[in-house]
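= Protein in question =
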Amino acid sequence: QVHLVESGGGLVQAGDSLRLSCAASGRSFSRNGMGWFRQAPGKEREFVAAINWSGHSTYYADSVKGRFTVSRDRAQNTVYLQMNSLKPEDTAVYYCAAEEGSSGSSYAHSYDYWGQGTQVTVSS
C-alpha cells in the first residue's frame, strides 16, 4: 500500500511559480512510477507529468512542456512538481498518483494510489 499527501497549492498570478510536493509512505514507494494529474471544473482529469522509479526518465503533457519539471527524492519519499510561468489555464486541482509498476504512465487508469489533491488557482 502507498499513501500520498499533496501540498504546495495556492492562489497566484499569471507568470508566477509554485512547487507542489507529494509525500509518500509505504514499502513500495522506491520502486513506484509516479505521476501528476489535474482536473479543472467541468473537465475530465488530464495527465500533467510522470517520472519513473529511478528518477532518470520524465515526460510531460504538451501543454506544460518547458514550464513544469517533475523530480523525486527517494531518500525523503517525496516527488515534486515545479511549475513556472503559470497560466490561468493551469487552474485545477492537482493530484499525485503512484503505480504498482515502475515506468511512470501518462494514463490515469495505470495508477493504483491517489492523493486527495491540492488546489492551484492562477489569476490573470
About this structure: The mean pLDDT is 92. The two ends are 40 Å apart (CA to CA). The CA atoms of residues 35 and 50 lie 4 Å apart. The first strand starts at residue 3 and ends at 7.
